[in-house]
């Protein structure tokens, strides 16, 4: 489980914003202020049989409540369905303190934000901050249609004519190569389905867009169903001790077995809570959290593996 503060928060508002997206406002029953957060942050929500991550998209200055949006995922693992069925006004949810792997860089300059579907939540919070700071930014929002685009009105209010919508039912699809050409020199942030980020990353590689300007957030595990795990060795740099990681076990499980305590939450490479460092090795990164720069020295042991031997900096 997460090593973060876990709070029992009360649902003070629960409303559908589209037929399959539920917006929840969460308050602490006793404390007037919740832990601070910054745009791009998410919280872990405990659900029956697991944990799910949801971005905060309310106003960070208003710490009286957290606001999240939960899409009912028909083919998901059941967590979103559980929240839709159980989160009513007056009910309580166990929620972690926020964590942010997707913060704005704060360097100024131009920003291009790309949202797909429910991935709009962190993009909305970022847009609000950029608009408040009078930053130079544009937002692209991809969805099937306006009626299936959660929080579209809120995003329009924040962005005005900085917002471009791409609704596939109208035959309008975002072209990743065109977007990247327009985004030259800008910080590029994206949150959405794997198909969207995969298209952007293909274009990034083809055009040589600087990876340090690219930031992404996923809330679904990367789909690599063809991946066949192999065994490998993990060396603990501080002691020289070697641990064998069999093909059918994760590095995180082996670390735990050997009393290297690590926080964890999702265990599918999307929350970032198990992150650790490494100093050498051919790592097979399978997480959806670390950007290309971070992957040079960090890995997610719940999902990522290595070829041969990896030396860990714990
Ligand atoms: S436990 Fe969530 S990324 Fe590893």
From TrEMBL:
Its cofactor is FMN. GO terms for biological process: methylation. Coiled coil: none annotated. The keyword Ribosomal protein does not apply. The keyword Oxidoreductase applies. GO terms for molecular function: 2 iron, 2 sulfur cluster binding; metal ion binding; methyltransferase activity; oxidoreductase activity. CDD domains: fer2, PDR_like. Pfam families: DmmA-like_N (PF22290), Fer2 (PF00111). InterPro entries: 2Fe-2S_ferredoxin-like_sf, 2Fe-2S_ferredoxin-type, 2Fe2S_fd_BS, Beta-grasp_dom_sf, DmmA-like_N, FAD-bd_FR_type, FNR_nucleotide-bd, MRET. Keywords: 2Fe-2S, Flavoprotein, FMN, Iron, Iron-sulfur, Metal-binding, Methyltransferase, Oxidoreductase, Transferase. Residues 232-314 form the 2Fe-2S ferredoxin-type domain. It comes from the Bacteria. Residues 4-105 form the FAD-binding FR-type domain. This is Vanillate O-demethylase ferredoxin subunit. It comes from Ancylobacter rudongensis.
């Amino acid at each position: 489980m997460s090593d973060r503060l876990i709070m029992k928060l009360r649902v003070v508002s629960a409303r559908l914003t589209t037929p399959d997206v539920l917006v929840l406002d969460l308050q602490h029953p006793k404390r007037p202020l919740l832990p601070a957060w910054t745009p791009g942050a998410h919280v872990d929500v405990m659900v029956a049989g697991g944990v799910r991550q949801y971005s905060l998209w309310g106003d960070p200055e208003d710490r009286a409540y957290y606001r999240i949006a939960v899409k009912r995922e028909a083919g998901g693992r059941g967590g979103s369905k559980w929240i839709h069925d159980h989160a009513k006004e007056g009910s309580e949810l166990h929620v972690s303190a926020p964590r942010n792997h997707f913060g704005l860089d704060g360097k100024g300059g131009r920003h291009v934000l790309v949202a797909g579907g429910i991935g709009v939540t962190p993009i909305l919070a970022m847009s609000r901050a950029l608009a408040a700071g009078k930053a130079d930014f544009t937002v692209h929002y991809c969805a099937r249609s306006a009626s299936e685009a959660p929080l579209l009105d809120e995003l329009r209010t924040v962005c005005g004519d900085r917002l471009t919508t791409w609704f596939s039912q109208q035959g309008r699809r975002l072209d990743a190569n065109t977007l990247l050409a327009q985004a030259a020199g800008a910080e590029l942030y994206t949150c959405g389905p794997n198909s969207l980020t995969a298209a952007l990353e293909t274009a990034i590689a083809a055009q040589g867009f600087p990876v340090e300007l690219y930031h992404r957030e996923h809330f679904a595990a990367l789909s690599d169903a063809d991946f066949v795990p192999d065994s490998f060795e993990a060396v603990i740099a501080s002691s020289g001790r070697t641990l064998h990681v069999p093909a059918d076990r994760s590095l995180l499980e082996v670390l735990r077995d050997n009393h290297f305590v690590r926080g964890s939450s999702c265990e599918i490479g999307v929350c970032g809570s198990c992150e650790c460092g490494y100093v050498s090795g051919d790592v097979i990164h399978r997480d959806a959290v670390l950007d290309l720069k971070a992957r040079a020295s960090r890995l997610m042991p719940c999902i990522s593996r290595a070829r041969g031997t990896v030396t860990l900096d714990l």
